[in-house]
Amino acid sequence: MIDRRRLMQATLAAGIFSGTALRAACAETSRLVFNADDFTELKKTITTAKGERVVTYRFYKAIPYVSEPIDVAYQSLNISVPVSIDGKRVDSSGSPILFSNSVGGYMPSSVADATGIGGAPMRGLPPTGMQAPPQGVAPTGIGGEVQSGGNAMIAGGKRVSNAELALAAGLTVVEPGARGRTLTDAAGTYYGVAPAAIVDLKAAVKYVRFNKGRIPGDTDRIVSSGTSAGGALSALLGASGDSPLFAPYLEAIGAADASDAIFAVGSWCPIADLEHADMAYEWNWGANPLSTGNTVDQNLSAQLKNGFATYQSSLKLKGLGGFGPLTSANYSDYLLKTYLQPAATQYLAKLSSEDRAAYLTRNPHIRWKANQARFGWTDFLSHVGARKKGLPAFDAFDLSSGENNLFGRDKTKARHFTAFSQTHDTGKTAIDADIPALLDLMNPMFFIGKPNVSTAQHWWIRVGTKDSDTSLSIVGNLAAALSANKRKVNSAMYWDGGHGANEDADAFVKWVSRLNKDTRMRG
């Protein structure tokens, strides 16, 4: 792979203005120049909190964002630029850019078949024939993942799209595709396993920033959004800006010569911190029954829970709001005071007196006094009910989970990524030698506070309180780690929200629109 920038600089400095190498470097660079004239003008009616908005926009479809794609069907992006809203002309050139990924389950995501904004379904799923979900619970695919990031569900089953709402607010929207864990070539080699998805999203950011002044919008204020695995990737993108660890991967696919750091992050129910996720899951949901009514092996659950105690102590995190050091012993109290009781209070306060009384009758463990909701941790766990996943929740003993597939390699579909599951399955304690480095590359917690890394300044983090796709401590730790590193964090939970819940999408878009221009990144 040619280092285009260094080659061109050295060649020009030497006074050499022709030759195969220079032409190759220039050709690679020119392929990544955004063509502002290649668009289709479309119109869409979008429902917002303030009513319907008719948006006319320019739609740029399936633009390759690297010069040497491995699979261009996934390594392309769409761009939507608003022209008018309700007949009034708009100019998004000075506004933030929403970078909305549609990854779910660490599956491949393609924009190639989209016919407009928000129309890029995740690829690679088998037919599901799904039934409509219960109220407040998002539709699920493999591993309980929502099928299209940015198109999560709010209470009552109403679809909401961050991308569409951002467009209706006058923002440019970028929707990137990315390789995913199920992709194989003709020889049966897996080419979308870790770290392909995050490498692709970084390359897409580089493309946008490389085209500063050509793509409408402020490329110094890119705001990433994603749900579930897409939420984890959004957080990872924000945490790991310009990390040199990704340079060889980005070089190999011909990423643009620009920064991959972003300004802000929107992350919903992130499936993150995978090497510790089984431990955290048993700490949180270990006592909850499966949907069958049975409980998981409590001895194994206790072993994992003990591992979480050691891990949590090693983080040396302090809770938000002056809570103090976070440990496995006080974490439930922290979640209750910081997230769960405030979420229940907000939910109940919005109900009519009659509906609130009916809800409290159905849920007598919740006490309502002085307009505040109060309950204990055990009552909360009972309120949630059945846990979503078995044991282990992520590194399955039989290698059947999506995360096992995520860490596949070459023609091996799935591998263990924790010593706990490797030992239980094979009797060997050592995981494959390349796994620890891959785990680092896929974990936003690894990058927060690291030198030579540009972590996003602003964070919007959300999860539903009935979301047992991962531990609630994943959001709690992410928010606490960011706050400790002087990042501005807006984190909250949706009471009774299921996996993929996004109940304040309009507020998120307003938050994006108001991000302080004076603190935007440079470079």
Automatic annotation (TrEMBL):
Gene3D superfamilies assigned: alpha/beta hydrolase
Domain (BD-FAE-like): give its ranges: 193-281
Give a single Pfam family match: BD-FAE
Q: Which NCBIfam families match?
A: tannase_B
Q: What is this protein called?
A: BD-FAE-like domain-containing protein
Lineage of source species:
Bacteria, Pseudomonadati, Pseudomonadota, Alphaproteobacteria, Caulobacterales
